[in-house]
Amino acid sequence: MLCGKYFFAVRISRHVIGQARGTDSTMHKCGMYSPKARWKQESAETSLRFFVSSGRGRIKFLFIFVLEYSNTKGIMKKEIEKMRGQELYCFSDPEVMASLNHAGALCRKLRDMGTEDADYRSTIEELIPGIPPTSTVCPPFMCDHGHGVVLGEHVFINYNCTMLDAGLIRIGKHTKVGPNCQFYTPQHPLDYEERRKPQETAYPITVGDDCWLGGGVVVCPGVTIGNRCIIAAGSVVTRDIPDDSLAAGCPAVVKRKLNGDGENAVATGMDGK
After folding, report:
1. The predicted structure's pLDDT at residue 76
2. Maximum CA pair distance of the chain?
């Protein structure tokens, strides 16, 4: 394109993001300066290369540089990408809503099924992509998206579990989750005016291998429960629990350590599954 006496050849790797015209201040913001130059910003995802010559065909100067764009300049992240990236995102975004609606329809379908029904396996595999054939989720089961639930081999999740999986929820192999357990990854803004907007931030939850969560356990956003842990029924887990721990209470605290070698520990009120 010709702009005054300058010719700009812009190499674009994938997408044209936008275009702008400016003078010195614009050039300063982009890391280059040429008085009275006007330019068109045609951006790739992360990089631009500018070859600048005079209109007479004689090379006058050359700029080759890479721009790293923030969220407000360059390609904007999708809301669903922000959701997974622990960033504030809009949950009324059409793509997010489509994911919610898809999961909701499958959860309603599962509500009238048992694990022995012919359509159970295909439905749960559509809801939770990649669920191992050795893992079982007993209906009724509720989740926000389904594709945010990651289960290891030989996981058993009992009736009426709720997983708000805006952030990833990872459950390790050979872990048992009792009935009515709840996993919450979304965190709403603390400021009430911000909380009125359709926005939140999601923090992932991780439960290790060989764990046992009793009935009615609540796991809060961002919590990691280590390997071989037992969480007593009715506990509310607000902080990380280290490996080989028996934790109980609201909030849950470590009551004693387990050796991780198959020790049989008994906690009052624990659910057997």
Report:
1. 84
2. 87
pTM across the whole model: 0.71
- Residue 95 CB neighbours (<10 A): 12
- Does residue 212 or residue 49 have the better pLDDT? 212
> For the residues 145-150, what does the mean pLDDT come to?
98
158 has a pLDDT exceeding 60: yes
Task: State the average pLDDT for the chain.
Answer: 79
Residue 60 zone, left/alpha/beta (φ > 0; ψ -120 to 50; rest):
alpha
The mean pLDDT of 230-239, rounded to a whole number, is 98
Residues identified as active-site: 188
Q: Is the dihedral of CA 55, 56, 62, 64 positive or negative?
A: positive
